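Late entry, 2',3'-dideoxycytidine 5'-triphosphate complex.
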Amino acid sequence: MPSEYELIFSDCYIYVYPVGLGKKRLSLFETQIINHGGKLINEPKGNLVATHIVVDDSVTQNIEKLKADLNNENCKCNERTKVVRTQWLSKCLKEKKLAETCEYEVSLSYDKNIIHHVNTKNFLTSIQENSSSSESVQETNDTQLSPPKKLKADIAQTLRATMGQHNQLIIGELQKLADAFRSSGDQWRAHGYDKAISAIKAYGKEITKFEDVASLPNIGQRMAAKIQEILEFGKLRKVDEICNDEKVKVVELFTKVWGVGPATAESWYLQGYRTLNDLLTKANLTKQQKIGLKYFDEIQDSMSREEVESIFAVVREAALMVEPSLKIMLVGSYRRGKEMCGDVDVLIVKEDNVAKDILTCIITQLKETGFITDDLVSMETNGNQKKYLGLCRLPGENCKHRRLDIFLVPQSEFAPAIMHYTGGALFNRSIRIFAAKKDMSLSEHSLMGGVVREGKNIINQGYVIPTPTEESVFEHLGLQYRPPEDRNHSL
Ligand code: DCT
Ligand code: MG
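Prediction complete; structure with ligand written out below:
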């Protein structure tokens, strides 16, 4: 047990009743109890009597089920056992002492059906069977039995099993808020949560207490306090408030439709639309939004790296038939090593002197075979880079429609382009901000030096810095090279 923890629960035998908690909150509470000297009652065969049973708020709505479960399984109780809400745990952790339970108790009339008077003989036998020889057996009486310390091996095992889960729980809660703020159009707040998530991912160690996050970059006092709340309660009250709000839920659903931004989603909400079916039957939809709705489920679904590779092979073959000198590569989340990808991002690099309208030829080819099924966006930026966004489907009965993005760039822009389309979005954003601080500017086209800004406005574009490789972009920025798999969070 790490020495910096206060041994708040050293005299407690606590059963955390799992119903309504979810795996991650359950494991978080159990770890906190163990870290703070408590013993868990989680073995159905054990004869330990719980001093406390910790339950989720929702349990109070179905006390009969709680009673039945306690009667049937894991836990032994007696008249002194306190059934308390999770907030009691939080209060103890906050005050670093065993708090009074009265405010948090769940009334549960102990009839004799749920009280297991423990047979002392069995209990002692079980202690002797379970404990290591060096651990002493405490004196007991038959109303309040004091079981021995839980085996160290058990504790270590529980801690191992929960490793990594706190960070996931924290990230999960913060992500819910980031998504809600983003879909409501509050990009500024959403970015704040993105940056905190990024910092937690970059931290790379398990977060178990406030001090772990208080000094991390991009995590201010208020964010740290939210993380502390998650560590204590296993969830954020703000998530419940915001994410359970009908408007937020509906707007979030609508912004998931391809081609729908926060303003449109909100106006649909204000027009009284609440479901995807309302949109389909009543809303005024653009061509893209119609496609987004038609393939809503398929687009939401992410795909394996193998599927990305199969789609890429089809695009690659068509592209090489159009122009054999092209360089074709997978970028986006695939290049960053993600196990599951939201879409297929393909970068095609052409020699600067190749003139023909390559992208149109490739798309025509892929449509003729039925591989590309729907167009979303086809565009040209700065007369040079070209972009195609659409939907495709591999042959075969069970194959789903997948989002396919193809970016065509000239060789002279290769390095900034591959960096941009590899992403991730947050990494791109932070490296651009970093460049700006050095009077440079980084885009998908180029790295510029000697840029002069007045506030947000660029008053002198500066000059193009030659960057033949990604490494050279990092070098000019004075940064150590980061391989794509290390670009899943901000700088
Ligand atoms: N990009 C960006 N800013 C954005 C969106 C995208 O800089 N707001 C860049 C970085 C990644 C690249 O474009 C491809 O974008 P997506 O396909 O949307 O993202 P992804 O990282 O590939 O993730 P996913 O698996 O969801 O496609
Ligand atoms: Mg992608």
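The pocket of 2',3'-dideoxycytidine 5'-triphosphate (ligand 1) is lined by residues 332-333, 338, 341-343, 345, 420-421, 423-425, 428 (CB under 6 Å). Will revisit in the morning.
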